[in-house]
Design goal:
Layout lengths: L13 H14 L4 H7 L6 H8 L7 H10 L5 H4 L5 H18 L8 H9 L3 E4 L6 E5 L14 E5 L9 E7 L2 E10 L2 E5 L8 E3 L9 E7 L4
Antiparallel strand pairs: 1-2, 2-3, 3-8, 4-5, 4-8, 5-6, 6-7
Length: 221
């Protein structure tokens, strides 16, 4: 799909950016293949080569990705020999890109989106600047380890072991934490609070387990 002209840098800025890319790539000993991988293969080696040699006008979003790779400060563009009009356009694009980068849901995969839409207590939040899937505990079934209203972050695993605290649907449209124990004919989903029943399951696949607890957030009142 062709990039719209308004999403590309101007002809005036092109030689400045071309020189900037080349100098930093050589400074950090990056090949064009290395740079392509660093920006998640959004552009291939041939296209990056054309940007560097001034044969193509680079899109703003790819320029900002490259700036992040090489840690190029925005101050560079404020002092670049370009018109005030170009600087204003560049500043608007940089602000838009920065705001977009802060969105906690920008990396949602179809699988994560499905979980959030299916289970009412699931969400996608950012602990320590890294967004992860999480649930809000809706009962005291895992008390005193996990309390009602705790936020539990979890991650999908290839396999699960005895004693793992896992995320699974115990009630319709609600996810809960249970402690996993395997035995020859099935598994046990153990609630820590003794007033809640132990669940015995004859057949279960790893696909039915949404993840293992990775961290917890609790408000102290």
């Amino acid at each position: 799909m062709r990039t719209r002209k308004q999403e590309l840098i101007s002809d005036e800025l092109k030689p400045i950016v071309s020189d900037l890319i080349k100098k930093n790539r050589e400074k950090y000993n990056y090949s064009l293949e290395d740079l392509s991988k660093a920006i998640n293969n959004q552009k291939n080696r041939q296209t990056l080569h054309k940007y560097e040699n001034g044969k193509l006008n680079i899109p703003y979003d790819i320029l900002f990705e490259i700036c992040r790779v090489f840690n190029i400060d925005s101050e560079f563009f404020k002092t670049a020999p370009i018109t005030d009009e170009e600087k204003k356009i560049l500043e608007k694009k940089m602000i838009k890109d920065y705001v977009s980068s802060l969105r906690k849901d920008k990396n949602l995969t179809p699988q994560i989106e499905k979980i959030i839409n299916t289970y009412k207590n699931a969400s996608y939040e950012a602990p320590n600047n890294k967004s992860e899937l999480c649930i809000k505990i809706t009962d005291d079934s895992m008390s005193p380890v996990y309390l009602k209203n705790d936020i539990i972050y979890f991650q999908k695993q290839d396999d699960y072991k005895n004693g793992d605290d896992i995320i699974i649907a115990v009630k319709n449209n609600t996810l809960s934490v249970r402690r996993l124990y395997r035995y020859p004919k099935g598994i046990i989903l153990q609630a820590i609070n003794p007033k809640y029943p132990t669940i015995n399951v004859n057949i279960i696949s790893n696909d039915m387990i949404l993840g293992r607890v990775s961290s917890i957030y609790r408000e102290i009142k």
